[in-house]
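Researcher: Structure prediction, please.
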Amino acid sequence: MRLWLKDSERRPDPAPVQTDDRRAVLAGLVLWLVALVALLLLTGELVAGGHLWWLWTVVVGLALGVVGLIYLSIRRR
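Model: Predicted structure follows.
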């Protein structure tokens, strides 16, 4: 087994696969939204248990997902 090939011995690089990454980001956003609804229903228990930061984690996840979706939409154009 050789670790290095000469340029003349290399095969050409394959063509990149075209994907729609927005679907993956949208799926993640839906999951964050479900988590937000669940935590909003349990806000009283979160405050009593000192876990209100869980709610802010979900909000930040949603915000980053929206930023990612905007970035992917701009990049697609």
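Model: The chain has a mean pLDDT of 93.
Researcher: Thanks, that helps.
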